[in-house]
């Protein structure tokens, strides 16, 4: 494990560089194939509407995968992440157009723990709504 | 339908080993648009101290969720999977998953609850490598929504 950020350099409130991740229908088809999650709510509009959703929605695990990138891009070594948890609060709705949707992710150091570890709280928004709740990672820094 | 509380603590047999392929890791990293070289370039992974390319943090979910199928499809538990949504997900890592790993998952039902007509099941998946060392634990909360009008 070789995080490029030093524990001594960060404080409670230190903000990680925010990022925005685009999501189109093509993204979801690719993620379905790579993850093996072929639930039709992630690619079939007719099916999604029939089960009460507004439209096709992104895989929760896709959103979870994007949100932690703000942390792994910050540390350089993804192995710095020793714990990561989220609550799926709202779906990311992905319309069938050129733009699709966007997941905006920001994060900040919320606590300094023992053993050169910090707790990072992550915020993920799409279309003005918080899509992940209780989204936290424990990260071991250099 | 309220689920049977006696299932709390039930552990299912370890799954047959899943072999982690480097091209599967690459495919996953590309699908999430993540160009971190630790996922695709062995030399870059080694420079960080890893013996081979590693997988993104959430990669292992595909393996633990498949293992959780034993719980979800257990007819005695009686979960209505057509109404299931993913509530929470958490991982705790001893080390990252890497190419060449042969991973086995042992699933345990940690909690079974009924809240406002929703059935809630918490499943813990312990992931071990071929030498029996712990790699990661995944906690998955599944919520089976109450049928309309119930």
TrEMBL record, chain A:
Gene3D superfamilies: Hotdog Thioesterase. CDD domains: SAV4209_like (cd03453). Residues 13-118 form the MaoC-like domain. InterPro entries: Fatty_acid_synthase, HotDog_dom_sf, MaoC-like_dom. It comes from the Bacteria. Belongs to the enoyl-CoA hydratase/isomerase family. PANTHER family: (3R)-HYDROXYACYL-ACP DEHYDRATASE SUBUNIT HADB, 3-HYDROXYACYL-THIOESTER DEHYDRATASE HTDX-RELATED. This is MaoC family dehydratase. It comes from Streptomyces exfoliatus.
From TrEMBL, chain B:
SUPFAM superfamilies: Thioesterase/thiol ester dehydrase-isomerase. Residues 6-137 form the FAS1-like dehydratase domain. Signal peptide: none annotated. Belongs to the UPF0336 family. HAMAP family: UPF0336. This is UPF0336 protein AB0A76_02600. It comes from Streptomyces exfoliatus.
